[in-house]
Structures are given as structure tokens and as C-alpha cells.
Known about the structure:
- 37% of the residues lie in helices and 15% in strands.
- The chain is an alpha+beta fold and 402 residues long.
- The strands form four sheets. It has a seven-stranded antiparallel beta sheet, sandwiched between helices. A three-stranded antiparallel beta sheet has the order 5-9-6.
- The longest helix has 29 residues, at 40-68.
Amino acid sequence: MKVKNVFLILALVVFVVCFFVAGKKTTVNTVSVAMGYVAGEDIYYHVGEMYSEQKAGEIESLFTRLNNKGIFNGTVLYAENGEVVYQGAFGWEDFRRRDTMKVDGAFQLASVSKMFTAMAIMILEERGKLNYDDYITRFIPEFPYEGVTIRQLLNHRSGLSRYMSLADKNWNISTPICNEDVIDLFVKYQPAPYFKPDDGFHYCNTNYALLACVVERISKQHFDEFAKENIFDPIEMTHSFVYNLRGDSAISYEIPVGVPGYRYRGRRLVKVGDYYLNGVMGDKGVYSTVDDLFKFNKALDEELLVSQKTLQQAFSPGSPKYYKRKDNYGFGWRIREEMDSTAYHFGWWKGFRTYYIRDMKNNRVLIALTNTHKGVSSGVLWDCIKQENHTEDLLKIYQGLN
């Protein structure tokens, strides 16, 4: 179809919507159809504006219903083409005091934190401080497992066992544990790996806790400090930080920062207290807001932290295809097999569920953060991100009227 005809159809669609959308007053001041000419940019502006309003209304209605049913309590942001279409907050930040949830609330991101750990590693790689195929013993020489590389940690192909199980068995859980303590436990007890390095895929938090150790060993900074200085501050993620228990000798009853998390005790929601494993960074521990995460998303598009060449590796499958594996894994991102150029990560940890979907083909992003351990089905979020472009729907309306 010629561009001129597309513009003409869009102009007619705008006028149709003006007359038939109830309760909407829409004007197109500069549309002119004469000698085959149409002011295309104005048409696209109004069609896009109408689409954004409709999409925002749909999302607000959906999450209002989910909140009313007790399925969603938190914040959500949806954006297209680098612009926020909708952001909102639903439910309670504090269920006992009935403090209303705020859109700038900082949530524990759980495993969504892994994309920031991967970013820290990519920053160091671009600066020439490491190579992805370096053995981790280059930076942690006391580590008692040979043949494990940085890349294998990023892709969850190291075969290393779970540090959480090791700590539960061999650590006094009334005192905080940190990343260096995790290394010490592996050195002392040397639990058997699940498989040889690069001989399979196993999603394991140990990989990203060790990556945070690598960052600390190279930078001579604590991981939270490195993240603030090299990721959060440069792109003005002003409400984001990495929680840690450094310097604490005991576990607090409550986490003193951010939105509190909740779990169900029977039918009653109770606040989740602090936990000794919260002292380990890299696999979890980042607190952030939907707005800050959108700043991070824009920073990826605009190469503010690393180049597109480097970033492409984060969104590339790290393992061979396997019929029993639904999706693949890159550097801190899961790769959606059934959708073109789509990466995502979900998280769960001690009263929080988090969701981040990045559709790079259609330039869409959906972020949802919740502070209850029972969260919305991810299928609802995938339905939001998959909806067809509304301009195409308007064209179908026009064609149906003729």
C-alpha cells in the first residue's frame, strides 16, 4: 500500500473515532486532504494519543479488578516507544496501618536483581577488567572448583550447588551471612556440583552471588557501592539501592528500608521480617521502583551503561535448545523462545514477587512489583505485552465500515 493511501486511511479513521467514541472529544486541526496530500505527522500524533489513552485505561481497569480480587497489590508501569503509557499503584503499602501504596515505593526485586549483577560484569568487561571466559579462580583463587568461567556463571551453566542449602545446614541462621562467607563455606565443605562446568543448565542463585564477589574483588568496593556508583547514579535511579546486612551482628525484626513484604498466615497477611540470607548480594537484594526500572530500560536503549554490542550478549541464548526447557537464559535475562526479541525476568523472595518484560521488537516494556508472596499470574502480564498495535485495529475498523 502506498504511503499516501495509508495516510488517507488513517485520516479517515481519526474522523470515524471522533464521531463514534462515546465521551471523547477529539479534534484534528491540521488534517487536510487535497491534491492527495495529508498532514501525516498530525494524524499519527492523534492516533497515537488515542491509542495511549485507551491502553492506559485498559491497564488501569485490569489491575483495579485484580486488586479488588486480592490478586495484585503493588505498582505497575507500561511503556511503548520509550514513553510511559501508564503507571499506577494499587492496594496497601502497609496492611496493618492501611498506608496506601505509592507509585514511587521501592520493592525488593528478588531475582530481577540479577540483571544488575550481569550489568556490573558487562561494565567491567568493557573496561578490560575481565573476560567472560576467565576462570573465576583468577579473581577468587581459593575457590575449590576448577574450570568454572564467568560466562558459565552468567548463563547458569556452572553446575555449582545451592549456597542457600549449604548455609542452612552449616551457618548460624541467627546471624547475617555475606558473600565472602559464602565463599568460605564452599572452601570448607566443598559440596558436590550438580554436573561438570558447561555440561548443562541449572538456574542457581550461587552463580550470581559469586559474580557479585568477582565485582568486589576486581573493584575493591562492596557490591552495593559499585552498583550505586556505576549503575544507579549515572542514570539517576535515585530510589534504587542494594540492601545488605554489612556490619550487623543480629537479624532485625523488620527490614528498615523500602516497601515491606507480606506473606499469608492462613487468610491473614503478616509482615515478613529480615532474614540472614539478605546479607548476600548479587542474586537478589536490589530495591527499586517502577520508574527507576524504566530509567534502566531507557539506559539500555540509549547505550548509557554499555554498548549495544555488549548488551546483545545479555539477550543471546546461553544454552543449546532443549525440548524440556521452555525458555533460554542470557546474561541476567531469560530469553522468551516463543516471542521474537523478548527478554524478561521474574522474581520471588520473602514476601515479594516481581516481573519485568522487555519486548524489544515492538519497543514495549511492562514492569510489575508486588509486596505479597502470592502474586498475579504471569499469563496476565504476557497478555498485556502481546496485544496487537492499536493502529492496526483502527485500520480494521475503517475497512469494516466499507
